[in-house]
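Repro:
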Amino acid sequence: MILDDYRSPWLTDELVDLQHLARTFLDKELVPHQSRFAEQHMVDRDFWRAAGRAGLLCISIPEEYGGGGGTFAHEAVIAAEQARAVDDAWANSVHSTIVAHYVEAFGTEEQKRRWLPGMASGDLVGAIAMTEPTTGSDLQRVRTRAVRDGDDFVVNGSKTFISNGTHCGLLVIVARTSDEPGARGISLLVAETDGLAGLERGRVLEKIGMQGQDTRELSFVDMRVPVANVLGGVEGRGFVQLMEQLPQERLIIAVSAAAGAESAVRLTIAYAKEREAFGQSLLSFQNTRFVLAECAADALAARTLVDSCIGRHVAGELDAAGASLAKFWCTDVQNKVVDRCLQVFGGYGYMMEYPIARMFAAARVQKIYGGTNEIMKELVARSL
C-alpha cells in the first residue's frame, strides 16, 4: 500500500527498533485491557511502572535525569505506535512530552534531579493544570491564586479537563502569584500530590470519547506548595514558560492526528476487502475505492507535513506558527478521514466494539485541546 511505501526521512534504524519495542509492549500490556480501562476511566496505576521498565517514559529526557536520552523523534515514534494500536487511554504525551519537558527546560538543577527520575520510572505520573471552568485558551485570565505565606504558597482555585488527574503524583499548576496584570503575575507551581492536604480530586469527567483516559476536575482549598517548588525558582515567568513549551505540545497532537488518520485508512481497507455487498467486496465498488484513495492521499499529506515539522523541531528550527499550522491542519484531516472511513463500515461503524467508532469519538477533541484550531489559525495568520 502507498502508505507503507513511504518512510519518514528522520526515521533511523534505532527508531525502527523503538517502533518494534513500543508495538510489542502496547500489544501485550495495553490492547488486551482497553475495554477494562474504558470501564474504569483510567489505565492501571502499575501500567505506568511497566512502561517505565520498558524504557518508554521520558524517552527524550537526558539520561543524567533518568530519561532515555533521545529526541522528540523518539516521542513521535511512541505516539504513532499508540495511534496504530487505536489507544486513547494512556496519556503518555502529557506525562513524557509535555510535563517532563517543563521540568527539564525550566527547572532548577535540584528540581530536575528530584522529579525527573521518578517520572522516567513511572513512580511519579505527571499532569499539568492549565484550563479552568471559566478559562480555556486565554491563559492570562487564570483565576487560581497562590498567596505567599512564609515558605509556602497557599493555593486556592479549580481546574478542569486534567489528563492524568487521578494518578498524578506531580502536578504543574498555572497560578497567579502576584497582582501584576496579565501574563506578568503568572507562575508555574509544582505540587507533589502524595498526601497533599487541600488537593481535592473532583469528579471523573464523562467524555464523548477517550473513555479510558484519566480525566477529571481538580480543586485547591488552602493547599500549601513550597515556594521552592516554583518552577525555575523565580516567580512571574510562568506565561513565558507556557509559550515556549506549547509548540511541542501542539506538534505531538499533530503527530498522533496524522498517525490516527493513517490507522483509520488501514483498518478500513482491510474491512472493505472482507465485507461483501451484492455478491462482491466493498472494495470492488468504485465509490469505495475512490473514497479510500482520497483518504490515503490526505493521510500521507498529513504525515509528510508532520515529518517536516519533526525534522525542524529536532533541529531547533520549528516556530510557534509552524507547530500551530501542523496542529490545526492534521487534526482537521484526522476528523475528515475518520468520518469518511466510518461511513464505509456502515452500521458497524457506529458500534463501539469496532475500533473505527472509538477513533471517531476520540478524534473530535484533537481540534480543541492544546489550543482550539480557531486559535491556531489566528496564530498562523499573525505570522503571515
